[in-house]
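Render Peptide methionine sulfoxide reductase MsrA in 3D.
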Amino acid sequence: MKEIVLAGGCFWGVEAYLNLIPGVTHTKAVYANGITKNPTYEDVLTGQTKFVEAVYIEYNEKILSLQQLIEAYWKIIDPTLLNQQGPDMGEQYRTGIYYVDEDDLATIKISLSLEQKKYTKPIVTEIKPLENFFIAEEYHQQYLRKNPNGYCHINLSLYK
């Protein structure tokens, strides 16, 4: 299994969307690349922890390539918006691709270059190594599966 962390605004919709993709075997809502230990949702909302709401993903690369996964990810974000996706605003809602395997960086950069051709504004999505992450509280895990009418800024039908 391969792993990567993706951030695209509120993690509820991002996690629900990613779970629709064949080859994604496991996801967790997480707080990634921040500066404190064991942050809570309330801590992250202050903007002082530098954490981003993100989704940790394990995927089977025999079924799903990293390129395919990132292409699916680009469909659900506006990578030109800084610290905002949909109505969610704040540094914790920035977009990001946080890689675990240094060998993945070349694929990520190629995908970014191809995606940039679709926009006149620069893409501001962070591309960084995963420094740290903490699993979000249980009520955030698989939130939209537990709450089918819950808030989601993502059109879940985008994955086809």
